[in-house]
Fold:
Amino acid sequence: MNENRRQILEMLAVGKITADEAERLLSALDPDTVVPAGSVSSASGNGSGPKSGTGKVPPKYLRVLVEADESMTGNKGLTTVNVRVPMQLLRAGVRLAALIPQQAHNQLDQAFVNHGVPLTLSQIKPENLEELIDHLEDLTVDVEGKEGNATKVRVFCE
Structure:
């Protein structure tokens, strides 16, 4: 990211300019790189094409599978929960987080801590998200209940 873009985003984060003004300024810097909302561009890292230089197709979904036996759920047999979250939604959320003013970041961080989630929004950057996705090949967590009942949770990208 060049210095002009960084300054515009910092002014937006501090509240010196509005989101519309920031969009206009970013468009003035380089009108060819601004992508309208809802459109798809392979340059934006949307998961529609291979990463440059790697030949590896980026994942399109974050998938969470939860399998619980009947002793945990009360239902006969195995209960499975299958959630697929589009990676574009995660990437867009990280990009939008850059537009949140610092004061709001502080309040959100404190709310997370109050609820037992040690998360700092200002530390989540798009490049960190891509690194996390690369490392999130396959994560399996076995959760054991009060009476020794086991639940299997898998989080992975596909």
